Amino acid sequence: MGTIIAASILLVLMSVALLSVRLLLVKGGEFKGSCASNNPFMQKEGAVCGVCGRKPGEPCAEKA
Question: Mean pLDDT score of the chain, rounded to an integer?
């Protein structure tokens, strides 16, 4: 049972590390496509971005 828990924790840590490679290795790195309006399911509902307030079809208001 302990090996399963250890393997699960290791897998989660590896996943988070691989998702954050851009943040760790690139100066000024950021997650791409994090606006809700990039999601096709959210576009049908007309969702706005929680970060910049962008609506589907509008440019992002917050540029880094």
Answer: 75
